[in-house]
Design brief:
The chain has a five-stranded antiparallel β-sheet with strand order 1-2-3-4-5, with no helix packed on it. By secondary structure, the chain is mostly beta strands. Helices cover 0% and strands 41% of the residues.
């Protein structure tokens, strides 16, 4: 499990809640870079349930 945390005006990525926080660098309003790659945030609306994260390559065309 991973967490995305907001502290002030900075977003951080953290694995498992116990690892060090890694700052995310904004490239746009929804795209951030970290670990030599990018993370894209999308809007998801759900009341409850299980979620699955897909990479862009796994999305239906």
């Amino acid at each position: 499990m991973f967490h995305v945390l907001a502290e002030g005006d900075q977003l951080f990525f953290q694995l498992g809640g116990a690892c060090p926080k890694i700052p995310l660098a904004a490239q746009s309003a929804t795209t951030f870079s970290a670990f030599g790659g990018t993370i894209d945030f999308v809007t998801v609306r759900a009341v409850e349930g299980d979620f699955k994260v897909l990479s862009k390559g796994d999305l239906p065309k």
